UniProtKB/TrEMBL annotation:
Gene3D superfamilies: Oxidoreductase, molybdopterin-binding domain (3.90.420.10). GO terms for molecular function: oxidoreductase activity. InterPro entries: Mopterin_OxRdtase_euk, OxRdtase_Mopterin-bd_dom, OxRdtase_Mopterin-bd_sf. It comes from the Bacteria. This is Oxidoreductase molybdopterin-binding domain-containing protein. The chain crosses the membrane at residues 62-82, 103-122, 134-152, 199-219. SUPFAM superfamilies: Oxidoreductase molybdopterin-binding domain. Residues 168-180 have a biased composition (Basic and acidic residues). Residues 168-192 are annotated as: Disordered. PANTHER family: BLL0505 PROTEIN, PROTEIN-METHIONINE-SULFOXIDE REDUCTASE. Keywords: Membrane, Transmembrane, Transmembrane helix.
Length: 398
């Protein structure tokens, strides 16, 4: 039963993880690609769409919440097969040898992926090297071993489900000894301290508890208060129009208030016909548009829809010679510290009428922590691509 749960759950984790990587548009620009030399492993990458607007919020929220929820199942599965890891002889046939080799990668890879994922979500990443390539390559190693193991064990698993009447056995309080001759059985076992039903209740209860104390950070709104184990759980950090969740503050990013003042700040827009420099006052003279969009982060948290108002990216492209279909854009920030100080957006993201260089949120000027004097907001994009403290936009081939 534990294996079948993991079969479905880990497959969903793998797919949503790859989808998340594609959402970064790593083939668009090297500044977006935090996993260099991915080679053939990037075969599936595709242009990330802009709709529905909650797409990344859903896929990454599912990835993080499901990963945390499956931790008790993974640990129980490993606990249940610990004796098999030490059976002798180590290989009795070619198929058995392949299974044993896959187990090394399966157990090690599983622990590595879940550990690095949880540490990244908890904002306490301690592994040497960047999380992105380690988690990406580790996922391929782990899932390859997972597939090999699943193929080898599927006949046994399905036979057990059919022959042992799983529902009746789960309801039973009796201990059922292993039936295979190859299984390890203690010659004089102590009385069992817990039935299998009790063990399953413990695992299921643990998973349910983790789910209920995590999922709120992805749902947003009042549900955030239930996300007790999530670093961005609890109430929104402040009140008012700007009182919704942030990831990095202006202080952390090294933003100097003198650079963002009305007198000093200018937006530099470059394209086919040259360069235009715009003050915030001049941006406010351009046609302003509004979009209701959330922010969703790779760490699994997201906000409710916020009401953004600003200049459409496609209109800024038109200022520098792109009156028709706008091209890709390279966005640069005043940010000095942290990842994604620069990012690239695809042409379909620029062309979407909901994609803005936002100047206001919920009827008020952006706060310094939300990117004053201007930030990018794009539907369905990962939060790090919604660049804050924007200083320059370069339209054209990247």
């Amino acid at each position: 039963m534990l294996g079948l749960v993991l079969l479905v759950g880990i497959t969903v984790l793998f797919v949503t993880g790859l989808v998340s990587y594609a959402a970064y548009n790593p083939n668009l620009s090297r500044v977006n690609d935090t996993t260099p030399d991915k080679g053939i492993l990037g075969f599936y990458l595709f242009s990330w769409p802009t709709g529905p607007v909650w797409l990344y919020r859903f896929t990454q929220g599912l990835h993080v919440t499901l990963g945390i929820t499956l931790i008790p199942v993974l640990l129980a599965k490993l606990w249940s097969v610990v004796p098999k890891l030490f059976t002798l002889p180590p290989a009795r046939s070619v198929a058995h040898a392949l299974e044993r080799i896959s187990l090394l990668l399966l157990v090690g890879g599983g622990l590595f992926e879940f550990t690095t994922g949880v540490l990244n979500v908890q904002l306490d990443y301690v592994f040497p090297g960047s999380f992105y390539p380690l988690h990406f390559y580790g996922a391929w190693v782990f899932f390859s071993a997972f597939v090999a193991h699943a193929v080898l064990k599927m006949p046994t698993a399905m036979r057990a489900v059919r022959e042992r009447r799983l529902r009746e056995e789960v309801r039973s309080q009796e201990e059922v000894r292993p039936r295979d001759d190859d299984d390890l059985v203690a010659p004089d076992p102590d009385p069992p301290t817990v039935s299998r039903r009790g063990a399953l209740w413990l695992v299921g209860g643990g998973s349910l508890l983790l789910f209920l104390t995590t999922v709120g950070q992805s749902l947003g709104g009042p549900f955030r208060r239930t996300a007790l184990l999530a670093p961005h759980g609890g109430a929104d950090p402040a009140g008012g129009p700007n009182g919704f969740q942030i990831n990095k503050t202006a202080a952390y990013a090294g933003i100097d208030a003198t650079e963002t003042s009305a007198e000093a700040w200018r937006l530099v827009v470059t394209g086919r016909t040259g360069t235009v420099r715009l003050s915030r006052a001049e941006l406010l003279q351009l046609p302003l548009h509004s979009s209701s969009l959330p922010i969703a982060c790779v760490e699994g948290w997201s906000t409710a829809d916020q009401w953004w108002r600003g200049v459409r990216l496609r209109d800024l492209a038109a200022l520098v010679g792109y009156d028709g279909d706008p091209p890709d854009v390279f966005v640069e920030s005043l940010q000095r510290h942290g990842a994604f100080r620069r990012a690239a957006l695809r042409a379909n993201q620029v062309a979407d009428p909901r994609s803005l260089l936002a100047l206001y949120v919920n009827g008020e000027e952006l706060s310094p922590d939300h990117g004053h004097p201007a930030r990018v907001i794009v539907p369905a994009a990962p939060g790090v691509l919604n660049t804050k403290w924007v200083a320059r936009l370069t339209f054209g081939d990247l």
